[in-house]
Amino acid sequence: MTSETKSNLARLGLMIAVYLILAARIPSYYSQPGIAALLDSAVLAGIIAIGVGLTMIAGEMDLSVGSMAAFAGILSIQLFPYGMVPALVIVVLFCGLLGALQGYCIYKLNISSMVFTIGTLIALRGLTLVVSNEKTVLIPFENIAETDFLSAKFFVFSIPSATLLVLVLLVDFFSRRTLWGREIFAIGGGRGEARAAGVSIRRPIVVAFSISAALAGLAGSLLSFRTGSASPLGFEAVLLEAVTACLIGGIALAGGRGSILGVLIGLFTIRFLVSGIAALGAPFWMQSLATGALLIFVIIAEAAIGYVTRRRRMARALTA
């Protein structure tokens, strides 16, 4: 069993513990509608966290995803008269192209992705306000019934929540089993070593940012279709939850370590905690406090385990 598998199992145990503790106080957690609601609540941050996680594995960070999702939401609603599927495909492809351009600029300019994507975060938000004329955009009332199937439940899954789980499996397979995916891990683990081994630096950065932007566009479009509206100021808080899910899920800020399955575990750990606290009637600030405390606990636990592991390796080396 690899160290990463052990790490994911430990995180899975934490997620189950959080769920069981809260489920003991909240009977609806065991019910079919309760589980369906938990799955649906994870869709937006989950789809975006997959893309953000890829950029973090590459040793970068995409801070523009909230603005990208809002931009995609406005565009998708405006293109809705041409059909929901064509609108979704056009918006996701366009966002992916913007992400690829963003990744190429980061590579070519050799600039920090955090600095660059703060700029695109602001620019995209401004562009979204211009495109929407600073107003919330609505699906015409006579067409709103066309989106009802997005809220329909198949056992505990809706189309958006099923999409999230499928994307986790697909992107995890891509990142681990394909050449381009392994390149993302390689450059995150060490740019100099990757370059010396002949690994392209440009391609994995462009691919990671393209996927991140496309997934942000998909999330923004799906949620806007489901609610029937899109606000140019929407999705401002989603970045924080997505990054927190990645960190709790084991993605290293330094890059080169983690998995998309781990991101899913981190995401549901947060969702179980936040939804449970809300269901218990606690004030809103308690949700933020509990999430922050959970993240700090995971970071400290990881540091302690890493310290003990290094000490044991050093002791074995000295006695060998």
Automatic annotation (TrEMBL):
The chain crosses the membrane at residues 12-30, 36-56, 87-107, 114-132, 152-174, 205-225, 237-254, 261-282, 288-308. Keywords: Cell membrane, Membrane, Plasmid, Transmembrane, Transmembrane helix. It is a multi-pass membrane protein. Its main location: membrane. GO terms for cellular component: plasma membrane. One of its GO terms (molecular function) is transmembrane transporter activity. It is found in: Cell membrane. This is ABC transporter permease.
